[in-house]
Amino acid sequence: MSESTQEISPLEDARSLIRNAPEPDAAPAQKVRDALLGMGREGDFGRLGEAAAWLAKWQGRFPPRIEKPFLAVFASSHGLASEGVSLSSPDDTRAHVDALREGKAPLSAIATQSGANIRVYDLAIDKPTQSIAESPAMSERECAATIAYGFETAEDKPDLLALAVSGAGVGTAAAAVACALYGGAPDYWVRPSNQTTAELVERRVDVVARALALHRGHLSDPLQALRHVGGRELAACVGAIIAARHQGIPVVLDGFATTIAAAVVHAIEPKAISHCIASHVTRRPAHEAAMERLGLQPLLQLEFQTGGGLGSATAIGLLKTACAPFIAEPEGASAT
């Protein structure tokens, strides 16, 4: 088949955008560092100072500020949930989404406190992906379309984008993608918190092992690994990360699943996730292992059992605090 007639994968556009991730202007971050030196000794502000410099760099402005933060929650469902690998169900996901939209979920209150606007993206919750133990989770076109759907998070130009996912089985799918990207036994990446029963862990390990065996030969390409053993939430997060980079929007990652979405991008071009920061680390050992491979350090140690947006929403408030010394001289704050 000639090159002119060979079909090009729908995923190639995403790959090209990742490989051509624009670099930021370093000047705003340097202004933050210079200003910090004027406020005290080098290192006095620790991780807060580093976070402020990171924000200035990726927002492309000094002083850094957070005036329009968005929390994007991608919700979907997985065919592998029928294997009994999840403590929740698609009905639970639907109820959580409804509670978020009605402002009744705990995450809604945290986001409100942080001044973030929650956007919930329903990725066909009522139509689960195929079980990865039996077939690819998505076709190439569906995966590419879901990545493109994730681009919508950047349309309203937020100045900070926090990511979250919701979906029965998403953790197991993320573990399968991690296995594809980094190797290792399924039980290493399935490792949950200590509140998960041994029987549930065994079912998850079995599903991941069967999926890896079924799709071997397709997993060396990060985007193919995503479509074969991942899910819609992960694909949409990949799209959000790509779009944010091209729009100059810093991104806050949440739990294990959003971290693995960043890992897909990182596997294609490591520099393409430099605009991402880890909000926290959950009690899931695999989450910390994934962050280590990406060179990420969590802003917070909150010991949440899972992600779900709690960490990324909480981090917005901390990042606002990091901006505070550069925005205005506080009134009435002098010591006496």
UniProtKB/TrEMBL annotation:
<dbReference type="Pfam" id="PF02277">
    <property type="entry name" value="DBI_PRT"/>
</dbReference>
<dbReference type="InterPro" id="IPR036087">
    <property type="entry name" value="Nict_dMeBzImd_PRibTrfase_sf"/>
</dbReference>
<dbReference type="GO" id="GO:0009236">
    <property type="term" value="P:cobalamin biosynthetic process"/>
</dbReference>
<keyword id="KW-0328">Glycosyltransferase</keyword>
<comment type="similarity">
    <text>Belongs to the CobT family.</text>
</comment>
<dbReference type="InterPro" id="IPR003200">
    <property type="entry name" value="Nict_dMeBzImd_PRibTrfase"/>
</dbReference>
<comment type="pathway">
    <text>Nucleoside biosynthesis; alpha-ribazole biosynthesis; alpha-ribazole from 5,6-dimethylbenzimidazole: step 1/2.</text>
</comment>
<dbReference type="GO" id="GO:0008939">
    <property type="term" value="F:nicotinate-nucleotide-dimethylbenzimidazole phosphoribosyltransferase activity"/>
</dbReference>
<protein>
    <recommendedName>
        <fullName>Nicotinate-nucleotide--dimethylbenzimidazole phosphoribosyltransferase</fullName>
        <ecNumber>2.4.2.21</ecNumber>
    </recommendedName>
</protein>
<keyword id="KW-0808">Transferase</keyword>
<keyword id="KW-0169">Cobalamin biosynthesis</keyword>
<dbReference type="InterPro" id="IPR023195">
    <property type="entry name" value="Nict_dMeBzImd_PRibTrfase_N"/>
</dbReference>
